[in-house]
Each structure stands twice: as C-alpha cells, then as structure tokens.
Amino acid sequence: MQLAQSLQAIKPSYIREILSVANSADVISLAGGLPDGDHFPLALMEQSIQQLTTRSELFQYGSTAGYGPLLAYFRECYQLTDQQDALVCTGSQQGLDLIARAFLDAGDKVVMEAPSYLGALQVFGLAQASIESIQQREDGPDLQELEQCFANKTIKMFYAVPDFHNPTGVCWSLEVRKKVAQLCQQYNVALIEDAPYRELRFAGTELPLVSSFCPEQAIVLRSYSKIATPGIRLGLVSGPKAWISALERVKQGADLHSSQPMQAVLLDLLQHEDFPTHLDGLRQLYRQRYQYLAGLLTAQLPDNCQFEPVEGGMFIWLRLPECNVDKLAKDMLAVGVAVVPSSVFYQSEAGKGAAFRLNFTNACHSDLLLAVNRLAQVLKSIKE
Q1: In this structure, how many other beta carbons lie within 10 angstroms of the beta carbon of residue 104?
Q2: Tell me, what DSSP letter sits at residue 232?
Q3: Are 86 and 236 in contact (CB under 8 A)?
Q4: Which of 200, 218, 259, 368 has its CA 20 to 30 A from that of 184?
C-alpha cells in the first residue's frame, strides 16, 4: 500500500531509533530525555496499583475528556477558570497531535524556535503545516524577528517550550514571556505552551506560565512522564473551552479515552502525602547530576566547546566547533556513548550550528565521567 504523501516527507525519529541501541548494556546513553528509572515513585504507587483489582468500574469504557476525579483535581491544582477546560491525553505528545489535527490545514503557518523539539517538528510535518523558524536567544525567542514574522505573515500558532527548552535548556525571562503573550494577542496567534519540564526546576525562581498573560489565546500541554513515569502515558491539555471541545472530538476518533486505571493511579500518586518529597528528591538528584556533568565538560573539553548554564530540565546544549555533527555522533556511538546531534532539531539548514544535546538525568556520575572522557578523546582525534 502506498504511504500518504505527508508520511513520506517525515524522517523516522533519530531519538526513537537510537534508543534501541542506547538501551544496550555496553552503551552510556545521554540521548533520550529519560527520567531516572531508579527513582520512579513506584513505592508511592504500590497500594493504588494493588487495589485496582477491586475497582472494576475503572476497567469499563470512560469519558473521553478523562477520569472525573482526576479532572477535578487538575481544575483546582491549575486554577482553571470557568472559561477553560482540560482534556487528559495519552502522553502530552498525543495532545500535540490532537492540536495539529484539530486546528491545522495543509499550508497553515506554525512558528517554532530554532532549534526545536523533534516530536513537534514531526507532528506539524504530518499535518503538512508550513513551519516558520525563529532564532532563539539566551532568554527566549528573538522578539524582533518574532514580531516581524507575526506582522508580515498569517500565523496560526506559535509552539514553544518556555521552561527548560528541549533541546537547549533555555528558560524564557519574565520580560520575554510578557512580550510574547502581548504579541500573540495583538496578532491573534494561538500560543501552544509545552511545559513538560516545568516541575524540574532545581535553581533560580519559578516564573509564571506565558499563557497566564494571555489565557484566552493559549493552550498548555503538561506531561506526567517526567515526574511520575513515562510508561503510564498520561498528559493534560488545557485551554479555552471551545478549543478543548474540538480536541475532545478528535480524541474520540483516535482512542476513545486514555487508560482509566492509570488515570486513577496518577491521581492517587499526585495526592499522596509523600509526593512533594519525591519531587524535591528528584530535583536534588538532577541538580547534582547537572552540576557534575557541567563541571566535567568545563574541565575536560577545549574552549571551543561551550554551553549555557541551565536551572532545570534535562538537557545541556553543548555547542561544538564546526564539524560534521552527524558523523561525530556516530563516532561517539562507536565508542559506546549515545548522544543526539543538533541537526535533528532544525526544520531547515538556516541557522544550524554544530551541537550535541546531552541528557544528564538518566546517567550516574561514573557513567557521566566515562562519557565525557570518551567525548574528549573523540574530539581530540578529529583535531589530529
């Protein structure tokens, strides 16, 4: 059977493919955005999971919008207004897919920072959207470039990860957040705010969501993969009632509803008295691993390998001297270290620079040390 033209244009996910290799016992993976599996809150989930067999109602068909008690919890937790609604989805990645299917026609223009999240590039590519790339600065998108784009082109939505951006780790400043919200309102552009790493801040001061400055103009995506477990496959989309209603109609045709038993388990976890302690421990662990990796990179790599400090999230964006970054990533894999090259995070060649996205949350200190030692050796061999 002939593939759809939209699918033919989409490259397979480098990260999905490399993970099959990276999971090998003899490979140190700094590739995927994986939380540390040894620190999943399984003990906090144990009682809830054991009691599932006594809750047969959870195994019946459920509401497309989500498990009622969980939605009620989210409404209170995220202080949703009477003009807003929420929809539980099968991971926030599904939420992104629902948004594209509900609101994008072929050729519609979507603005994204460059570089940007690979999964979003794939979703918008399948929707046959026209992606407009905006350069990213240390405190967020280039505002002048963004406003020119909004003013001169008919833009339907702006997709962004303002808190600990994937792949660069950038966190938007308060001034940038307010200005982006104002521009979205002024030019009637929908803001798609992806916030999977927001709870993983381990330094600095928490900033308000960008959408809090333009709630009538924004959809927020939240993920529970990073703070609970990825395997439960649960996320949340919230925004204006009419927009969420449209997403619910698309989800009805996609999978009817997300797993009810897992939604009940997630609710019990989020309400567990020890869950805040779990989150604090996770932040402390990731801060230690980030600081350790950052120290190794500074000490062992040449001056032309640079990165900006991050205050949370999962990634360091290591800028490299001009090179064939794809070949360099393969050279790293040959010595037992999996990394993601910068090339996969760009829609076009414009603005591309050589870099690696390094994940610091899923490797212990000894593995991080080995990985940086091997990276230093590979870079040295290229110079020679």
Answers
A1: 20
A2: G
A3: yes
A4: 200
DSSP state for residue 38 in the 8-state scheme = G
| DSSP strand pairing (84-89 vs 235-240) | antiparallel
For residues 361 and 349, the answer to whether their CB atoms sit within 8 Å is no
Nearest to 237 by CA among 262, 255, 251, 219: 219
Residues near 134 by beta carbon (within 8 Å), at least 6 away in sequence: 111, 112, 113, 114, 141, 142, 145, 146, 149
- CA-to-CA separations, 197 to 129, 167, 223, 310, 361, in angstroms, rounded: 26, 11, 8, 12, 12
Tell the burial category of 319 from Cβ atoms under 10 Å away from its Cβ (0-12, 13-18, 19+): middle
Which has the closest alpha carbon to 128: 156, 149, 147, 153?
156
For tokens 């003009």, the residue is 83
Q: How far apart are CA 196 and CA 206, in angstroms?
A: 14
| Cα–Cα distances in angstroms (integers) from residue 44 to residues 50, 71, 236, 258, in the given order | 11, 21, 21, 22
pTM (predicted TM-score): 0.95
In 10 A of CB 291, how many CB atoms?
14
Q: Which amino acid is at 57?
A: E
Strands 28-29 and 218-223 come out as unpaired
Q: What is the pLDDT of residues 288-316, one digit of tens each?
A: 999 999 999 999 999 999 999 999 999 99
In whole angstroms, how far apart are CA 212 and each of 42, 82, 207, 221, 311? 33, 15, 10, 13, 21
What is the residue-wise DSSP string for 252-283? HHHTSS--HHHHHHHHHHHT-TTHHHHHHHHH
Instruction: Round to whole Å and give the CA distance between 191 and 111.
Output: 10
Give 184-230 pLDDT, tens digit per residue. Answer: 999 999 999 999 999 999 999 999 999 999 999 999 999 999 999 99
